[in-house]
């Protein structure tokens, strides 16, 4: 680009993963042996890296490429943007590679599609005078059509309809170059950033003629406010005085932004589009330009169209050029996820926060994205995927909740680091790595205190996910693996007696006991401090003790009577999808008896567990072993497995929370094939922190025990209050 070089490269990352494998128990006494074997293995995964260098340091950038990224097989380097011409000879000479220039607009659009598809909180609206200057929008798989307004030297307006179909529909020669050029003539300031700095301090009303200057107030007949600009630079024709550089720069900025805003609005209306993304060096995260463009779009569209900006706008061209070069590997067939541990966040535009970091106008220094093993898609049962928001509370907006949860995660950090080190007793460097993890996550939390919007909308889910990313970064793939192994073994020994006791009850009594068991199982959550304190101090705390902790009915949220009525009066459900939560007592003594009852009613069951570890949540590979053991004890489960009426699947997630818009494609296919008509979501992370308000096309049960006193208080209850939410969609 004109002032920054953006570099996109692919690497393979070797890191540790925890694997579980069933022991071969043939002919052995298995009474006192662990349930399964845990091994930590090295796994190689793919990662995309994006880095920025200022063009004045192009030699440093090329040294970095030469030292780290070029091997003997590399023959060509893809490049796009003005610098692909300007630095072509230098690059070829220094790296000994051929520069393959790619079309700028094609690369921009490819890059834009990639970030829109893979980063849920990529898009934001800018609101200068609100508490949170960045208002993020949840991206959904249906990203087309949209308008991309690229403001470089001039303005290009492109309509994007599909992955490969886009057309240039208009533009203007009055763009960023005009602001820069005229600004230089008016103020004698040659640098773009300095010009914007002047504009941010200026008062345009000293130079511009307003409606009230012409009519003495508002022009009521046409509904025009008195403060509206009637003529840019209009006062300079009549005033004898000298105008300040700041005021002239501000007037010029308004003039060009308003022109671009009106043009973009007219094209959006002409092509019936309501999504307009702005990019180019004129925008590049500058608060003054984002503010003026936002105002202009809002004014000319009468609030119907919103100006939208992209967190990684500066990288779009580089990403697109990379994708063009990697076409034979087809990166688009995969889903990718932002790695919070290796990415720097969006900087504040407020000068009093980290003033040094805004000396350059690049708002983003580094982005890392990990390739996910399986493609992710929407849950087909979401009522309206375009309005689905997984998270219940937006901590970016809610200052009180933000302060509480950030403190909560800070206070828990020493315990998490200790647990991580203890999970690898045979590793001599585990304490050192645990300390590095602690420091890294602590620093992330401090950044989020200052800039809650750094990685998009701040939520409990993003705080948990960032912690998991940081643990993985320092090779702690599953700190709770031994805890889960032990708890699964203990719970399996109790399974038969729990089933016998349930089978001895009458039908109605049994339904309540099953729900109570599901809720009691959900108490066993090592992620909740109130519970982990009890589990560490009282090792004998078990299923019956958990039942006694539960709130008596009526529960905090209680539609159990409606659920019971549905079971009594309605036909059996065709297929139930259950999102399981914790290992041990939760899945074995809580979920499985419930699954067994559904199967006995003639309902097929899809049991969905996390693909990767998070806290003590049960993983898909652990669920396979646990189910095999239960089937050996229970004919109902055994025959359901054999007849494929009980199916185990992975969610595609490694989070303690649940995003129903990013689920494993195989799960989505199965949900459709089996005509699923009941969704059960259990646990605080999946049913309260996320999905509490999620609307589905079919019946749903959301149930959890609130194991955090602050959250309980906020919801109007006490610790161990019960949420039992049975919802039927409106016809």
UniProtKB/TrEMBL annotation:
This is 4'-phosphopantetheine phosphatase. It comes from the Eukaryota. Homodimer. Interacts with PKM. It catalyses: (R)-4'-phosphopantetheine + H2O = (R)-pantetheine + phosphate; (R)-4'-phospho-S-sulfopantetheine + H2O = (R)-S-sulfopantetheine + phosphate; (R)-4'-phosphopantetheine sulfonate + H2O = (R)-pantetheine sulfonate + phosphate. InterPro entries: ARMT-1-like_metal-bd_sf, ARMT1-like_metal-bd, At2g17340_3_helix_bundle, ATPase_NBD, PanK_long, Type_II_PanK. Gene3D superfamilies: 3.30.420.40, 3.30.420.510, AF1104-like, Uncharacterised protein PF01937, DUF89, domain 2, Uncharacterised protein PF01937, DUF89, domain 3. GO terms for biological process: coenzyme A biosynthetic process. Phosphatase which shows a preference for 4'-phosphopantetheine and its oxidatively damaged forms (sulfonate or S-sulfonate), providing strong indirect evidence that the phosphatase activity pre-empts damage in the coenzyme A (CoA) pathway. Hydrolyzing excess 4'-phosphopantetheine could constitute a directed overflow mechanism to prevent its oxidation to the S-sulfonate, sulfonate, or other forms. Hydrolyzing 4'-phosphopantetheine sulfonate or S-sulfonate would forestall their conversion to inactive forms of CoA and acyl carrier protein. Residues 409-717 form the Damage-control phosphatase ARMT1-like metal-binding domain. GO terms for molecular function: ATP binding; hydrolase activity; metal ion binding; pantothenate kinase activity. In the N-terminal section; belongs to the type II pantothenate kinase family. Its cofactor is Mn(2+); Ni(2+). One of its GO terms (cellular component) is cytosol. It is found in: Cytoplasm. Keywords: Acetylation, ATP-binding, Coenzyme A biosynthesis, Cytoplasm, Hydrolase, Kinase, Manganese, Metal-binding, Nickel, Nitration, Nucleotide-binding, Phosphoprotein, Transferase. It comes from Mesitornis unicolor. PANTHER family: 4'-PHOSPHOPANTETHEINE PHOSPHATASE, PANTOTHENATE KINASE.
């Amino acid at each position: 680009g004109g002032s920054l070089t953006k570099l996109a490269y692919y690497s393979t990352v070797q890191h540790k993963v925890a694997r579980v494998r069933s022991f071969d128990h043939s002919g052995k006494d298995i009474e006192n042996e662990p349930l399964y074997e845990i091994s930590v293995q090295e796994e190689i995964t793919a990662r995309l890296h994006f880095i920025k260098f200022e063009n004045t340091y192009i030699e440093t950038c090329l040294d970095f490429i030469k030292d780290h990224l070029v091997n003997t097989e590399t023959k060509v380097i893809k490049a796009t943007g003005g610098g692909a011409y300007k630095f072509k000879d230098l690059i070829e000479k220094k790296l000994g590679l051929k520069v393959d220039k790619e079309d700028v607009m094609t690369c921009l659009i490819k890059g834009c599609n990639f970030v829109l598809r893979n980063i849920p909180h990529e898009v934001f609206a800018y609101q200068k005078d609100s508490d949170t200057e960045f208002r993020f929008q949840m991206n959904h798989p249906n990203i087309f059509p949209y308008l991309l307004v690229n403001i470089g030297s001039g303005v290009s307006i492109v309509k994007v309809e599909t992955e490969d179909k886009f057309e240039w529909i208009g533009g203007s020669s009055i763009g960023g170059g005009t602001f820069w050029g005229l600004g230089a003539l008016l103020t004698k300031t040659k640098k773009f950033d300095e010009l914007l700095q002047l504009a941010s301090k200026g008062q345009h009303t000293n130079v511009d003629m307003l409606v009230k200057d012409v009519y003495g107030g508002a022009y009521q007949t046409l509904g025009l406010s008195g403060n509206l600009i009637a003529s840019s630079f209009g006062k300079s024709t009549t005033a004898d005085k000298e105008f300040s550089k700041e005021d002239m720069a501000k007037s010029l900025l308004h003039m060009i932004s308003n022109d671009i805003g009106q043009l973009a609005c007219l094209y959006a209306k002409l092509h019936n589009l309501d999504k307009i993304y702005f990019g180019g060096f004129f925008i590049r995260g500058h608060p003054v330009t984002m503010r003026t463009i936002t105002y202009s779009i809002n004014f000319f569209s009468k609030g119907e169209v919103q100006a939208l900006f992209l967190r990684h706008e500066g990288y779009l061209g580089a990403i697109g050029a990379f994708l063009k070069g990697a076409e034979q590997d087809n990166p688009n067939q995969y889903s990718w996820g932002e790695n919070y541990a290796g990415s720097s966040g969006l900087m504040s535009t407020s000068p009093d926060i980290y003033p040094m970091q805004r000396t350059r106008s690049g708002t983003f220094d580094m982005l890392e994205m990990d390739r996910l093993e399986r493609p992710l898609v929407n849950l087909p049962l979401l009522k309206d995927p375009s309005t689905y928001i997984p998270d219940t509370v937006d901590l970016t907006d809610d200052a009180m909740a933000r302060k509480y949860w950030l403190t909560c995660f800070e206070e828990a950090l020493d315990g998490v680091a200790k647990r991580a080190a203890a999970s690898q007793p045979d590793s001599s460097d585990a304490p050192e790595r645990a300390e590095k993890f602690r420091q890294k996550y602590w620093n992330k939390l401090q950044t989020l205190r200052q800039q809650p919007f750094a990685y998009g909308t701040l939520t409990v889910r993003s705080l948990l996910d960032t912690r998991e990313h940081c643990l993985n970064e320092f090779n702690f793939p599953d700190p709770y693996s031994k805890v889960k192994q032990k708890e699964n073994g203990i719970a399996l020994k109790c399974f038969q007696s729990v089933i016998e006791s349930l089978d001895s009850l009458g039908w109605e009594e049994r339904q309540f006991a099953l729900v109570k068991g599901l809720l009691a199982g959900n108490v066993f959550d090592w992620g909740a401090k109130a519970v982990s304190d009890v589990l560490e101090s009282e090792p004998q705390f078990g299923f019956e003790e958990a039942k006694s902790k539960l709130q008596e009915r009526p529960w905090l949220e209680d539609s159990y009577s409606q659920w019971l009525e549905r079971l009594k009066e309605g036909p059996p459900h065709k297929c139930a999808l259950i999102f399981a939560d914790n290992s041990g007592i939760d899945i074995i003594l809580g979920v499985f008896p419930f699954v067994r009852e559904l199967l006995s009613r003639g309902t097929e069951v899809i049991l969905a567990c996390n693909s990767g570890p998070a806290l003590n949540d049960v993983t898909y590979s652990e669920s396979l072993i646990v189910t095999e053991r239960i089937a050996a004890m229970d004919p109902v489960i055994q025959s359901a497995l054999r007849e494929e009426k009980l199916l185990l699947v992975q969610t595609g997630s490694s989070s303690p929370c649940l995003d129903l818009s990013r689920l494993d494609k195989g799960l989505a296919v199965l949900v459709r094939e089996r005509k699923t008509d009941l969704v059960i979501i259990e646990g605080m992370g999946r049913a309260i922190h996320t999905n509490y308000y999620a609307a589905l096309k079919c019946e749903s049960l959301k149930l959890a025990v609130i194991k955090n006193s602050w959250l309980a208080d906020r919801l109007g209850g006490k610790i161990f209050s019960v949420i039992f939410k049975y919802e039927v969609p409106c016809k």
